[in-house]
Amino acid sequence: MSNVTSSGEPLAFPAGFTWGAATAAYQIEGAVNADGRGPSVWDTFSRTPGKVRGGDTGDIACDSYHRYPEDADLLRSLGLSGYRFSISWPRIFPDGAGQLNQAGLDYYKSLLDTLGERGISAAATLFHWDLPQALQDRGGWASRDTAYRFADYAGVVAEALGDRIIRWITLNEPLVVAHNGHRIGVHAPGLTDDAVAAAVTHHLLLGHGLGAAAVRAAAPGAEVGITLNLTPVRVAADGSALNGSAQALERARLVADATHNGIFLEPVLFGSYPEHAPAAIVPPAELIKDGDLETISAPIDFLGVNYYQPEHLRAGDPDNLLRNEERPMAGIDGHVVNYSPEGMERTPMGWLIDPDGLYELLMRLSADAPGLPLYITENGCAAEDYVDPNGEVNDLERIKFLHLHLAAVARAASDGARLAGYYVWSLLDNFEWSYGYQKRFGIVYVDFATQRRIPKASSAFFARVASDNAVPPLPAAWPV
């Protein structure tokens, strides 16, 4: 970045801000048959032909199960103070419940001791999508019993590891589990049933509430929260001029916001499902037992925020709905469409790059839940990374992405958002779910054939931000 002209002053972050990197067990650990681990739904899904690009699986992934000291050294070398990782439920309870696998707990004790020796604080996610297959065979998250089994698992882990973990996250992105895994079937367990997805939604939330209580009972004083992927909904400024559709656009905005954000955020914060959510995604009343919503909405100590891109709506052209990638918005009259604004850059995932959306989201959350600490638990981008002839990975696209988004976070903090930390996604290139190993999100390159780790240029940029607790001024021009 030294060849870029800059102006202005660095944007500082609050004192005590946590700088970290994030990973997830199935994406990095490998060792799927080691030391008594049971199979998860992702083992089953990834081994089903046609479900994951190239037939990739997480069988080896980054082999972090064996290489965690090296990964902890990477964190220390970057000067990061925090590591967000997930605990593999099937390592602890191979059958989801019943017989405890002590070797699984011992692995995480060793990982946590290694982090502690390097001065790195731990934020542990209890469920990052790898449900034990044995529980799926008994109904999975569509069954209320799974919420109780999750609470049992959470309590056992908190009792064993509570002296080593400062921050607990119950669930990661439950919306993705319900929607991708049970409504459209592109993630494990690969189901396509609206009624099942609605049941899964409620039981995930119930699992969060029960699990949070179990952690607090086993580890008094623990900080407990949940991580949600949240999506600002933007409406085109000129949309109301088409087809007299101002009312349809506002209705569509409310529905989209309830679908993407409110369906999990409102039960957690306010103890109710959103008024404007489509009927198909709201759990039916017979699933919601007395006391459920009180359990779900028990106060949390922080909210984890995963942000990648906003959704954009506008009034569509009824004669040409596919122009500019327009997609009719289901269930809304008035030709309202999702669309991709012209001229916006994208990542190799096809996701729009919009740091202002992150600022907007943080300010909205600060208004909805005043005083609640917010952690960015995921933010990052895939890039077309490669090792050049000098053995380096110069991922300038990722540096630009991080620079813009970190500036948005700093601006939100300056404007009153209670920001407490930022975990970049991800520490390592890893198994990117249904994309397999095609998409690289890491600030450290992984040669999957040799397991060699190569810090990318973005890791040096991120380390500088962490060291300074400030993001440098945005450049007047970016390198090309």
From TrEMBL:
Enzyme Commission code: 3.2.1.21
GO CC aspect terms: cytosol
A GO biological process held by the record: cellulose catabolic process
InterPro entries, per database record: GH (IPR017853), GH_1_N_CS (IPR033132), Glyco_hydro_1 (IPR001360), Glyco_hydro_1_beta-glucosidase (IPR017736)
Active site: E173, E378
Keyword Acyltransferase (UniProt): no
Residues annotated as binding substrate: Q27, H128, N172, Y308, W425, E432, W433
Substrates-to-products reaction catalysed: Hydrolysis of terminal, non-reducing beta-D-glucosyl residues with release of beta-D-glucose
Hydrolase keyword on record: yes
Enzyme superclass (EC): hydrolase
Single annotated GO MF: beta-glucosidase activity
Gene3D superfamilies to which the protein is assigned, alphabetical: Glycosidases
Keywords, comma-separated and alphabetical: Carbohydrate metabolism, Cellulose degradation, Glycosidase, Hydrolase, Polysaccharide degradation
NCBIfam families: BGL
Family statement drawn from the similarity comment of this UniProt entry: Belongs to the glycosyl hydrolase 1 family.
Family matches, as PANTHER family: GLYCOSYL HYDROLASE, LP05116P
Name the UniProt record assigns to this protein: Beta-glucosidase
Organism: Trebonia kvetii
Lineage of origin: Bacteria, Bacillati, Actinomycetota, Actinomycetes, Streptosporangiales
